[in-house]
Amino acid sequence: MPANFMPSAAEYFRFAPEIILTIVGTLVMILEAMTGDRDKSSLGYVSLLGLAAAMAAAVAANNDPGLAFQSMIIVDGFATFFRVLVLGVGMLTILVSTNYLSEAKANSGDFYALILFSVVGQSLMACANELIMIFIGIEISSIASYILAGYLRDDRRNNESALKYFLMGSFATAFLLYGVAWIYGLTGSTNLGEIRTVLSHGTAPTAMVGISAALMLVGLAFKVSAAPFQVWAPDVYQGSSAPISAFMSAGPKAAAFAVMVRVFYTSFDSISNQWEPVFWIMSLATMVIGNFAALQQRNIKRMLAYSSIAHAGYVMVAVTSHSAVGTAAVMFYLASYCLMNIGAFAVVTWMARDGEKFVEVDDFSGLAQKQPFVTAILTVLILSLVGVPLTGGFFGKFLVFKAAIDSHLMWLAILGLLNSAVAAYYYLRVLVVMYFREPGASTVNLPPVAGTLRVAMLVTTLGTIALGIFPGLILGFATQSSTLGK
Amino acid sequence: MITINHYMAVSAALLLIGTVGVMTRRNIVVILMSIELILNAVNVNLIAFSKYHNQVTGQVFAIFVIAVAVAEAAVGLGVLIAMFRNKGTVQADEVDLLKW
Questions:
Q1: What is the pLDDT of residues B16-53, one digit of tens each?
Q2: CB B45 to CB A150 under 8 A?
Q3: Could you say which of B31, B79, B85 has the minimum Cβ distance to residue A162?
Q4: Across the interface, which of B38, B42, B71 has its CB nearest the CB of A143?
Q5: Over 90: is that where the pLDDT of A14 sits?
């Protein structure tokens, strides 16, 4: 036991992104109080700068990978990838929301501070090497998102969405925590590496370890909205403001997958014969439920919610394959998924307008005649969600199913492919409505596309195309960092 | 003699009571209380394991759990009050705006 607990400078450096975000988040709250009734869009730009600084710090920290704070934090390629991803999600969310908030007359510093704090939690989840840190990261991220889900206090749908998210979320986290406590009891440690060592001796009672791992999986499956813990997602995404739905469907999900992969691939590696069948069933159930429920949706937010459940199912397929290829597939898929999903929700944000009156699929009728720019954006994003070649979504699916086949999960790959064929139906319906219907009441007086929203749409669309044409951009890094220190 | 098994039994009972409470109660405040019960089940476990392993890790963890539970309860009650102002109810089955 070292007598000196003072962390070294290198350790602070590895933890710099979280430190920067916390400081900027607090600063934004102070600035909010100081600026009074003035326009708060500038606070959004301060938050963007903070996120950009944190991203630079995260990339810089990767030059000196290693552990920090009595190995509570680990900075490796895997952590850096997810840190950059959740920070990027935060930036895109702010770009999508500024204009929406001004229109709803709810533009305030709290919102940006909450986004920053939620991202702190997700960033911590990405680099946690310890069950306590994982728990704290999940809670920081979730508590901020509970508030964000109900951010427009006077909107009943927001109220309901926040309440449902909160009740089911804290219930699921309580189970995760019970599993964590058991794992601590069985192994005498909360460090992921030490748990792995103890479990590989095989002295701990297998059945108890299995039950604890299952309890932890309940909490994580809830966060990624995997079946049978997906019921909250449609209600919450539909009820929250569109920019927040974009955020919740991307950042927390990616971070929870990072935790899931790290915990199950390192700590529970030796009991993989127990969890692999469970993941097999869960991934299939998630894909089937997501896709078939999405077929019947009229509300586009609800449809995107079910589609995000289905996408979680595809990522679960990659997790099930339990290999380095699978890890790289998880990383690539989540990156392209975050881009295309935020892009799609950005278009929904623009379409919905004040009070979110226009959120039905049919409200998009005739959009191609009226607003070719947004139509083009949404077309690319939807083709990517379907998984058409030359888009990021295609390579994501390709890598996922390749990982599954490499790990001899033939049936899962076949059933997954059939599922993506089903998914094409409800995605393409949106395109049909946009191109082949006459403009209706919703498409007559279209609002202009605000500057920040336009940037978000362009970044997500170009990013999706870039990942489709040059997958090597991030695939090389993902493959390199997919070994998780083994 | 009270052994670790007794603590685990109490904790499991609390978990069960909490879970049944969340599943069956209609009043959202009671559901919140049931979730707190589960968190306390975790704390009992953590402290017992901490004593069993002769480490402080579990106790430190329990303090973190308590702190987070407080933050969570504060947010939860805030969310509930916002809904009560608009809807005038705290019954879970009357929250039915969003469904397919």
A1: 999 999 999 989 999 999 999 999 999 999 999 999 99
A2: no
A3: B79
A4: B71
A5: yes
Domains observed in chain B: 27-91 (1.10.287.3510)
| A464: number of Cβ within 10 Å | 27
B31·A293 Cβ contact <8 A: no
Provide, as residue numbers in chain A, all residues whose Cβ is less than 8 Å from the Cβ of B61: 132, 181, 184, 190
Residue A417 placed within a domain? yes
pLDDT, tens only, A163-190: 999 999 999 999 999 999 999 999 999 9
ipTM: 0.95
Q: How many domains does chain A have?
A: 1
C-beta neighbour count of A349 within 10 angstroms: 28
Residues 6+ apart with CB under 8 A from B91: B26, B27, B28
Residue A35 in any domain: the answer is: yes
| DSSP secondary structure letter of residue A444 | T
pLDDT at A195: 93
Which residues does residue A360 pair with via DSSP β-bridges, in sequence order?
A299
Cα separation, A255 vs A338, whole angstroms:
11
Burial A55-86 (b: 16+ CB within 10 A, else e): bebbeebbeebebbbeebbbbbbbbbbbbbbb
Which pLDDT score is estimated for A485? 53
The whole-angstrom separation of Cα A275 and Cα B70 is 33
Tell me whether residue A5 is in a domain.
no
HSE of A410, CA atoms in CB hemisphere, 13 A: 0
Give the domain range for residue A211.
Answer: 10-480
Q: Is A73 a member of any domain?
A: yes
- The answer to pTM > 0.90 is yes
Count of positions (residues) in chain A:
486
Supply the DSSP string of A253-286, one letter for each residue. HHHHHHHHHHIIIIITGGGHHHHHHHHHHHHHHH
